[in-house]
């Protein structure tokens, strides 16, 4: 059975770039690597509803913290068979976002800490009720909300993709960063590795540490 490794962080932190580099570095160490990203836009109807909600096109459902959280969770539950297959096929399954994203963003929207009711509810829903696999380790790619916003703005220009309402809300992103720090400090679900996303990373060494 392979190891489930998750990359978490703010919108614009550079998770996709890190995932690409880490995939190559893990392969250099001799590990077979599968990759997935959540939400599964264009693949899952539930994920596409999430996207509509993030752009203000779901009415009151998009405003509901618990309603959006259920959509995110259902997207992952719909991928459970694929996750199980990947874990049986690869040494490492590397995910760009997972359950902790739901916990961090929902808690931040409610102005709750990681010790609040919402984070506990997310674990009960996604891990206990839906049976999603628990990560072996989680990586927090830590950057300031200001740097993340700058990168997201640049990506918006390059990819011609408008930022959603959460990406554009710097105070929200700041609170999300605080909840992520709390999740990492408490080793929520699994051990966390916090890496500085504002400076160049020794990705090869990071990959090695994930294999030990």
TrEMBL record:
Keywords recorded for this protein, A-Z: ATP-binding, Kinase, Nucleotide-binding, Transferase
Stored SUPFAM superfamilies: P-loop containing nucleoside triphosphate hydrolases
MF term (GO), any: kinase activity
Coiled coil: none
Start and end residues of each Thymidylate kinase-like domain: 7-198
Source domain of life: Bacteria
Assigned protein family: Belongs to the thymidylate kinase family.
Protein name per UniProt: Thymidylate kinase
Annotated source species: Actinokineospora diospyrosa
């Amino acid at each position: 059975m392979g190891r489930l490794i998750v990359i978490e962080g703010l919108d614009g932190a550079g998770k996709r770039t890190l995932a690409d580099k880490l995939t190559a570095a893990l392969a250099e160490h001799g590990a077979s690597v599968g990759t997935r990203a959540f939400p599964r836009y264009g693949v899952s109807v539930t994920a596409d509803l999430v996207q509509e909600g993030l752009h203000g096109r779901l009415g009151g459902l998009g405003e509901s913290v618990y309603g959006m959280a259920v959509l995110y969770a259902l997207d992952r539950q719909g991928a459970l068979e694929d996750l199980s297959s990947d874990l049986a096929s690869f040494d490492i399954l590397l995910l760009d976002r997972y359950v902790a994203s739901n916990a961090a963003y929902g808690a931040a929207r409610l102005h709750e800490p990681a010790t609040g009711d919402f984070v506990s509810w997310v674990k009960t829903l996604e891990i206990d009720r839906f049976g999603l696999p628990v990560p072996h380790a989680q990586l927090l790619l830590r950057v300031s909300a200001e740097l993340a916003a700058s990168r997201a703005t640049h990506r918006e220009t390059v990819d011609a993709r408008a930022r959603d309402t959460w990406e554009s809300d710097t105070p929200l992103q700041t609170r999300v960063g605080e909840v992520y720090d709390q999740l990492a400090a408490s080793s929520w679900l699994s051990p966390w590795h916090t890496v500085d996303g504002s400076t160049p990373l020794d990705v090869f060494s990071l990959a090695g540490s994930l294999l030990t």
